[in-house]
Specification:
The protein is built from 15 helices and ten strands. The protein has about 375 residues and is an alpha/beta fold. β3, α3 and β4 form a beta-alpha-beta unit. α5 crosses α6 and α11 crosses α12. The C terminus is likely disordered. It folds into three domains: about 120 residues, Rossmann fold; about 160 residues, Orthogonal Bundle (Hypothetical protein af1432), CATH 1.10.3210.10; about 70 residues, Molybdopterin biosynthesis moea protein, domain 2, CATH 3.90.105.
Length: about 375
């Protein structure tokens, strides 16, 4: 049953709404804007929220504006008297309110508005589900293109995605999909880079001035590409600022610094540089120590989160296995190459179902070097005796 929230300071009117509509909808009521917001926090989301305009403290327009922030998909309807009509119409135009109804409102008019609101809510959810499926498909294609055209860049993206996800979870970030997506697509601009430049970056080798200039182009190229996909504006911005330092140095060279830099970018910068240091052979503890020595480069809260993530990582052992012995969650401890020595998959990637299928296909054709060394997680430190 679709859920409706009525908000009005008149308790008798709310009681009549309960009696009138409880057979058609799951009805909740609130006698003030703050109480209504509390109900949304506890019981939301609602399909429709309908509010009186003239209420003490927080009026209906102010209340519905906050509803839009807390529950953007919820359809909002405003009830107003004729004396407030002109003011309310202006507020409706500014606040994107679905319907404006005048009081007293006949039951059939109110019923029609509620039904229309429910239909609109269902339509919004259906469109979002369709968009989500389209979006996931587009991202999967982009990721697969990167793995085919530039295994080095794909390997780097896979490694940093693992750390960005763990850091975001440790920090309690709600929109984790944006952080994870930004990480996975952060290296898509590397398709244009010569392999030698990216290899030097991953190994921590020094770039020439010309190589640095070429390398610094890849975040903006990736951002421009990703920004053309619906709902990916924030992801694109995070990718654009992935080489920006917390103190405002780095690229792009603008006035952005500190918490003005997108949170996803700040996490990406830590993970990218951490990955480079690990590529030079440093332990995770020493790599983190070096990051802390770079004054002003990183958000301290993210470094603290990374330290906790490292402390909770699973114990592991290194084994040599053949392709048919590979299992999900193992991590490649060395590059995988074909019999001619051409790189197929870079080390550091977690074995997933698609990657496993990819490798088994090579093994079936007998064109991959075996055995390969892998890191096998054993148990987590967390909760161990």
């Amino acid at each position: 049953m679709d859920r409706i929230l009525f908000v009005d300071d008149d308790g008798n009117l709310l009681a009549s709404y309960q009696r009138q509509w409880r057979q058609r909808f799951a009805v909740d009521t609130a006698q003030s804007g703050p109480q209504g917001l509390e109900k949304i926090g506890q019981n939301g989301p609602y399909s429709v929220v309908i509010s009186d305009y003239r209420m003490p403290g927080m009026d209906g327009v102010q209340f519905l504006a906050q509803v839009r922030e807390k529950s953007p998909d919820t359809v909002r309807i405003l009830l107003t008297g004729y004396a407030d009509l002109e003011t309310a119409i202006g507020a409706v135009n500014e606040g994107n309110i679905f319907r404006l109804l005048t009081k007293p409102c006949p039951a059939d008019v109110l019923g029609s508005a509620l039904e229309a609101g429910v239909r609109q809510y269902r339509l919004v959810l259906a469109e979002r589900e369709l968009l989500d499926k389209t979006l996931r498909g587009s991202l999967k294609v982009l990721s697969e293109i990167l793995s085919l055209l530039n295994p080095e860049a794909f390997g780097r993206a896979s490694r940093i995605t693992r750390y960005t996800s763990q850091i975001a979870a440790e920090m309690g970030i709600q929109e984790m999909w944006q952080i994870e997506t930004a990480a996975m697509l952060s290296q898509i601009g590397c398709i244009i880079l010569p392999e030698e430049i990216l290899r030097k970056v991953c190994e921590g080798a020094k770039l020439t001035a010309d190589e640095t200039e070429i390398y610094q182009m890849h975040p903006s190229l990736a951002s421009d590409l990703i920004s053309k996909i619906p709902r990916m504006e924030e992801v694109a911005r995070a990718i654009a600022y992935q080489e920006k330092h917390f103190d405002g140095s780095g690229t792009p060279q603008d006035g952005c610094s500190g918490e003005e830099i997108p949170l996803g970018s700040r996490i990406l910068k830590v993970c990218l540089d951490f990955d480079v240091l690990l590529g030079t052979g440093l332990s995770k503890g020493r790599a983190l120590s070096q990051l802390r020595q770079r004054r002003g480069w990183y958000d301290p809260k993210i470094l603290d989160a990374l330290e906790k993530v490292i402390g909770l990582e699973a114990k592991y052992e290194v084994r040599s296995v053949r392709i048919h012995e590979l299992r999900e969650r193992m991590i490649l401890a060395e590059d995988v190459r074909n019999l001619r020595g051409i790189l197929i998959i870079t080390k550091g990637q977690e074995v997933t179902r698609p990657l496993l299928a990819h490798l088994r296909n090579f093994a079936y054709r007998g064109v991959v070097q075996e055995p390969i060394r892998v890191i096998v997680p054993l148990e987590s430190h967390q909760g161990s005796p």
